[in-house]
Design goal:
single chain, mainly alpha, three-stranded mixed sheet, three-stranded antiparallel sheet
């Protein structure tokens, strides 16, 4: 028994000795396999790095952008993970780990292009966007566009979007881009686009029922916004499109202030959004109403571009409590504005002062002139909208008023029918009553339609129905941006603002479209910068200091 135990013990010891080398061999094999696996992984990463490098250096613009974004995002991800790790270490009180972490330099992640740090990656991305003539492929890729919008830092992202917007065909994406780039909420018929609005803006949107935008319209908005001071864009609550059959726009005013809500209309039939302002009746495809003469500075400008900037000018003015264009403002001195309250007797007296020479070329007797003034006062006291655009209806009303006044005067020397003819004769240069009708705000008196200012030494009209009447200097009219600026001082500021800021959209330098007097005032008040002398470089982007 003992012998057998001894033999068995020796056998076991021998087998153990025989197995030991096998275990060591297994470990060696495993180690070699591990090394092989690491080597294979390194080879794969090296191949990936080579592929990335080729995409960055030799791929299409889209491939290069995608590859560079991958590099930058991986760098940012690695940096964020390291930061989280460091914070956790700090919380555990391992100060040495934090110190070690912060002493490390940023390194390009393994498997990426080792020669590019994050600043170089961003610089190369911006260079690609600015130099490539084939950006449409990127602009059409919604996923890639969203990566650009969410993964790139603000400055580089904005540079990229400024290069890409003109090729984007998706209105919803353009709305996101405008919001991200300029902080401006563009709303359409979708209720979800109204979520960011305050209660006042939501009430306006609910009432006005904004329409959907086309990509072409939003591209035009984006273009103009790149020209406007960001501090002014920050005042905007939202931008709407309300009417696809006409042109123009409006900013909404309440209680002597203007909200940051406004709209711009454009003709849906023109996908390029290039309705051109022109003198009246100047052919199909052009719009009139803001320019009377080919020499006007606004002539041959893009209506939508100018309106987009013009309405923001009202928001800037309203945000300042209308102190920019209101009574006593320095701006009113440029065109020598004078204001008359909407009081019929005051208006008639001021109108007569503005008419050259004697009323009606001296054809009225003193008694007839008194009746003419009484008739004018009585006419203005009536509902202005009743005769808006209807001279025939106004003549009927005036005829009744003249006959009543003649009968009341009991002056047998006055022939009522003959006096009516005199007072309603549109061809008479100094026709007080025709001027009163034409100059009413309900008749869009800001235009010089039908020579409404003929026979006057100072143009005199009402800006808007129920609001003050104004006169201004004729020399300013002869050197104007547009006839629309003379509707009232508010419009003159908005036109000045638009003519200055939107000029590059028309291929001009900022200030080139603005008359010298208004330009000097605009720059002097800090709304723009001094324009370089001829031959100098273009004006740098200015920042408004008067918002």
């Amino acid at each position: 028994m003992a012998e057998n135990a001894l033999v068995q013990s020796k056998k076991t010891t021998k087998e153990g000795a025989n197995r030991a080398p096998k275990k060591e061999a297994d470990k060696t094999v495993a180690k070699m396999k591990g090394m092989s696996t690491k080597k294979d992984a390194a080879t794969d990463k090296s191949a990936q790095a080579e592929q990335t490098t080729q995409q960055v250096d030799k791929g299409t613009t889209k491939q290069q952008v995608t590859a560079l974004l991958n590099v930058y995002s991986d760098q940012a991800s690695e940096r964020d993970n390291a930061r989280v790790s460091a914070i956790l270490s700090f919380l555990k009180g391992i100060w040495s780990s934090i110190k070690s972490f912060f002493s490390k330099k940023d390194k390009t992640p393994t498997g990426m292009t080792s020669n590019l740090n994050k600043e170089e990656v961003l610089a190369k991305l911006v260079e690609l966007f600015q130099c490539s003539d084939n950006l449409a492929e990127i602009a059409a890729d919604a996923d890639l566009m969203h990566r650009i919008m969410t993964e790139m830092p603000v400055a580089e992202r904005n540079s990229a979007l400024d290069c890409l917007y003109n090729d984007v065909g998706d209105p919803a994406l353009l709305i996101e881009m405008i919001d991200l780039r300029f902080g401006v909420t563009v709303i359409d018929s979708r209720a979800e686009t109204h979520d960011k609005l305050n209660d006042k803006a939501k009430a306006i949107a609910l009432k006005e029922k904004p329409l959907d935008w086309t990509a072409a319209g939003l591209i035009e908005v984006y273009k103009v916004y790149t020209l406007l001071p960001q501090s002014d864009l920050d005042l905007i609550q939202c931008l709407m499109h309300l009417d696809d059959k006409s042109f123009g726009g409006a900013a909404y005013g309440y209680s002597n202030s203007t909200t940051g809500v406004y709209y711009v209309n454009y003709l849906a039939g023109s996908e390029t959004m290039k309705e051109i302002v022109s003198p009246r009746n100047d052919g199909k495809g052009k719009v009139s109403g803001h320019s009377d003469h080919s020499s006007d500075r606004r002539n041959n400008t893009i209506m939508m571009d100018m309106t987009t900037a013009h309405e923001l000018g009202h928001i800037v003015d309203g945000n300042a409590g209308w102190k920019i264009s209101g009574p006593g403002s320095s701006m009113r001195n440029v065109s020598k504005w004078e204001e008359t309250p909407d009081v019929p007797s005051r208006v008639v007296d001021e109108m007569i002062k503005s008419i050259a020479g004697s009323p009606y070329d001296g054809t009225l007797t003193d008694a007839e002139l008194k009746i003419a003034k009484d008739v004018g006062i009585a006419y203005l006291a009536q509902d202005q909208k009743s005769y808006a655009g209807k001279w025939g209806s106004a003549v009927t009303a005036l005829t009744d008023l003249v006959e009543s006044a003649v009968e009341k005067s009991a002056d047998a020397s006055i022939d009522a029918d003959a006096l009516v003819d005199k007072l309603t004769n549109k061809t008479c240069d100094t026709n007080l009553l025709y001027h009163l009708w034409r100059a009413q705000g309900a008749n869009s008196s800001h235009y010089n339609h039908n020579d409404a200012m003929r026979g006057m030494n100072r143009p005199f009209h009402q800006g808007y129905a129920g609001q003050p009447w104004f006169t201004f200097d004729l020399s300013a009219w002869n050197d104007k941006i547009s006839c629309y600026q003379f509707r009232c001082p508010k419009e003159e500021f908005a036109e000045t603002y638009a003519s200055y800021h939107a000029a590059p959209a028309m291929g001009k330098k900022k200030g080139e479209m603005t008359p010298k007097g208004l330009l000097d005032w605009f720059v002097g008040e800090g709304y723009g910068e001094v324009i370089p002398e001829s031959g100098s470089s273009e004006v740098e982007e200015e920042k408004s200091t008067k918002s």
